[in-house]
Amino acid sequence: MEHRSSADSSPAKTRLLEDCIRFIAAHGLADLSLRELAAGIGTSHRMLIYHFQSREGLTAAVVQAVEEDQRAALQALASEGLSPRDLILKQWEQLTDPTLRPFICLFFEILSLAIHRRPGTEGFLDSLTEPWIQAGRAVANSMELDTSRAELLLGIAVTRGLLIEVVATGDVGPATAAMHRFIEQWAEEPTGFS
């Protein structure tokens, strides 16, 4: 997973973030300390603290980078000419890929920490949903769909809720069946898609 550098990131910080993402994808993060993570990627914990301030700050940066990559993947799927149903199901397939599981777990971990205002999570809640609303609106517009903010928010909430089920149980089957049912219900609505 190669993350692109954001405007406020130095090349060194971007490289460290990419190294952390690769390490987490291969080994998970769980209860690793910054020292253990730093050793795993061949740097010092001081460098991680310098760039990310804390373990929570690093976790937030990792989650935000992965979320940016997932929004880019959604845009790429939209350019493939899929139907709205197929687009949502293809995105669901990507989100539930076992290789993404450590990052989904991190998302919920950092969300909980941000709700409790833990240092290093400042700004995380501010960017929790709006970037997905904007991405969803752009995709809907490209597909000439008239989708309201409430519908987009519902789709985000359902997806995140079903992802909780996946990470809690380790079983993607029931959540996938629920996603199919949600799409069917949405398609049946007068304002839904076909």
How would you characterize the overall build of this protein?
The chain is mainly α and 194 residues long. It has helices at residues 11-27, 34-41, 45-52, 55-78, 84-95, 101-115, 130-142, 149-169, 172-188. The radius of gyration is 18 Å and the shape is elongated. The chain starts with 10 loop residues before the first helix and ends in a 6-residue tail after the last helix.
Major sheet description: none
Number of helical segments with 4 or more residues: 9
Query: Averaged pLDDT, please?
Result: 89
Query: Span from first to last CA?
Result: 33 Å
> What is the molecular shape?
elongated
- Helix % is 55-70%
Uncertain segments are: 1-7
Structure classification:
mainly alpha
The SSE string, one letter per element, is: HHHHHHHHH
> Could you tell me the radius of gyration in angstroms?
18 Å
Q: Total number of β-strand segments?
A: 0
Strand content: under 5%
Question: What's the structural blueprint in terms of helices and strands?
Answer:
Blueprint: H1 11-27, H2 34-41, H3 45-52, H4 55-78, H5 84-95, H6 101-115, H7 130-142, H8 149-169, H9 172-188
Helix pairs in contact: 1-2, 1-4, 2-3, 3-4, 4-5, 4-6, 4-7, 5-9, 7-8, 8-9
Summarize the structure.
This protein has 194 residues and is mainly α.
Key structural traits:
elongated, 0% strand, single chain, 9 helices, 194 residues, 70% helix, disordered N terminus, mainly alpha
